Amino acid sequence: MGPLSHLRVLDLSRILAGPWAGQIFADMGADVIKVERPGSGDDTRGWGPPYLQDEHGEDTSESAYYLCANRGKRSIELDITTAHGQVVIRRLVEKTDILLENYKLDGLKKYGLDYASLKAVNPGLIYCSITGFGQDGPYAKRAGYDFLIQGMSGLMSVTGEPDGVPGGVPGGVPGGGPVKVGVALTDILTGLYGVIGVMGALEHRNRTGQGQHIDLALLDVQVAAMANQASNYLTSGKAPGRLGNAHPNIVPYQAFKTADGYMILAVGNDGQFRKFCAVAECPELADDERFVTNKARVLNRDVLAPLLEGIMIKRNSADWLASLEAVAVPCGPINTLDQVFDDAQVKARGLKVDLDHPTGGRVPLVANPIKYSETPIEYKMPPPTLGQHTHEVLQEVLGMSAQDLNELMAAPKPAES
Q: Do 115 and 203 reside in the same domain of the chain?
């Protein structure tokens, strides 16, 4: 029994931010009911290839993208644009603790499924709305996507090689210009903040019996997650720029080319720098007034970095890693994902799990990183197929009869206005 096994979550979200939050709740034991459009379901079901393959090596309808964020949920097909569908949602809300949705501003209001309407049904409901820009402000009605938010939040302004370095793209600026993070980081962070926000609201409800609305915006999340970079600007008044793999506040803390590839050197203090210099057979650098402290190294990074580049390239990565690890200087390889899942530490931590799947045999997934001592995460259900649990959920939760279900499925969809 997970720590949240007493809770029910109604997940009306699609794509990644909302489903990511829903999957975390499912991993913690909550009964997460994923409400999907009949016939098509969550948009990400079609975001492939790659797709999960069956025992014959043929693609199923389950994209790898969809699989990453929907483990442990029960899927029901329900048309919320119909009166029947809206009645079912309201009945489910009566028996629900948390509702997740990521429709556009007021997108559910026309169906009577906004917070104000559902609060009347269940005053203790915690209703988490995820939008691009929030419930107010001049951009509130705009659609928000991870890539756009990475640009608007400043994240891309500090990601990528600095101007003036070799390389770049055709027609681009030297250095390649601003670059997005290689995963939809803003969506993932928003999902995490969603869970945190809901947990706070649950604690408030435990004390008062009162639910509440959570207004969560992708832009707000990513601006908040600019962390030290935002603080650097607010403190200095100077907007930071792109430093490639270098760190704005610590030197040397970046990737270096070696004789056979690349590796990361992450010197965090002056003592570590002195030990690095001993291993690298350049003790004079540790005594150089330009480099003796981190403050000095940051101010003189343009002098120090080329010196270190000339040193690091003389030995291969394995040699550097072994020598530096032996004296506790932080360093590491730059792994591809095949190397990640073959890594001894990753295997020891059980970060890959395989679950039985109704159409794909076994589905490989990335484990939840939370390690509880008393209520360990259990992986009981794979990401569901579209509508896999419609009858099960509506019969179990709402006590609907077979006739009720047939009438619901046969209800005509209203004409588009």
A: yes
Judge whether 233 lies within some domain.
Answer: no
- Identify which of 39, 65, 40 has the alpha carbon closest to the alpha carbon of residue 51: 65
The C-alpha atoms of residue 370 and residue 351 are separated, in whole angstroms, by: 10
> Is 68 within a domain?
yes
| 0.85 surpassed by pTM | yes
Residue 212 sits in the same domain as residue 299: no
SS3 178: coil
What's the total number of domains in the chain? 2
Residue 409 carries which side chain, given as an amino acid letter? M
Helix/strand/coil (H/E/C) assignment for every residue in 235-261: HHCCCCCCCCCCCCCCCCEEEEEECCE
Helix residue spans in 209-352 (DSSP H) = 218-224, 227-236, 270-279, 283-287, 294-299, 301-312, 317-326, 337-340, 344-348
Burial status of residue 329 (CB atoms within 10 A of its CB: 0-12, 13-18, 19 or more): buried
Q: Which of 262, 250, 267 is nearest to 330 (CA)?
A: 267
Taking 70 as the pLDDT cut, the residues of the chain under it are: 165-176, 411-417
**Domain of 296?**
253-339
> Where among 318, 339, 360 does a domain terminate?
339
Look at residue 235 and tell me if it is in a domain: no
CATH number, domain at 330?
3.30.1540.10
The residue from 317, 339, 361 where one domain ends is 339
* Pick from 149, 191, 188, 142: nearest CA to 11: 191
Task: Render pLDDT for 361-409 as a digit per residue (tens, 0 to 9).
Answer: 999 999 999 999 999 999 999 999 999 999 999 999 999 988 888 877 7
Query: Which tokens go with 17?
Result: 């931010």
- Which candidate in 11, 42, 114, 187 is catalytic? 187
Between the alpha carbon of residue 211 and those of residues 371, 404, 408, the distances in Å are 29, 30, 29
Alpha carbon of 393 to those of 56, 127, 365: distances in Å? 31, 20, 25
- For residues 113 and 90, give the distance between their C-alpha atoms in angstroms, rounded to a whole number: 8
DSSP state letter for 414: P
187 is known as an active-site residue: yes
Q: Assess whether 69 and 144 both reside in one domain.
A: yes
Q: Is residue 369 part of a domain?
A: yes
Report the alpha-carbon distance of residue 167 to residue 84 in Å, rounded: 58
Rounded to the nearest 5°, which phi and psi values hold at 355?
Answer: -125, 145
Q: Are residues 48 and 170 in the same domain?
A: yes
**Percent of the chain at pLDDT above 70?**
95
CB 297 within 8 A of CB 273: yes
